[in-house]
């Protein structure tokens, strides 16, 4: 295990000899983090806005959303347009429900 303090060192490690890395959404949304991992796991995705998930998704070929949409909602501060308060998992959950409703018709 190796701990690094600079983003550039973490990205270098991911591109060379490191199999697993962790970072904040700011780290994964960096332009130089593009496609730095094969799979990006987002824990507590029920607390992350869809826009943030889309911003970090560029860092990987695949994204896995983890979390319980009924546990804690995403923290929201300030005023935002309608719809942005919905988490990424809620968007997926709504899509799955709508898709399964169409399948029954």
What is the secondary structure topology, with strand pairs?
Blueprint: H1 7-15, H2 25-28, E1 37-42, H3 50-57, E2 60-65, H4 88-104
Parallel strand pairs: 1-2
Descriptive report:
- The protein is α+β, with helices and mostly antiparallel strands and 105 residues long.
- It contains four helices and two strands.
- It has helices at residues 7-15, 25-28, 50-57, 88-104; strands at residues 37-42, 60-65.
- Helix 3 (50-57) links the parallel strand 1 (37-42) and strand 2 (60-65).
Structural class: alpha+beta
Largest sheet: 2 strands, parallel
The helix count comes to: 4
- From the spread of the alpha carbons, the general shape counts as elongated
State the separation between the terminal residues, measured CA to CA: 52 Å
Radius of gyration: 16 Å
Strand content: 5-15%
Low-confidence sequence ranges: 95-105
The helix content is 25-40%
H/E element sequence: HHEHEH
Mean pLDDT: 77
Q: How do the strands of the widest beta sheet line up side by side? A: 1-2
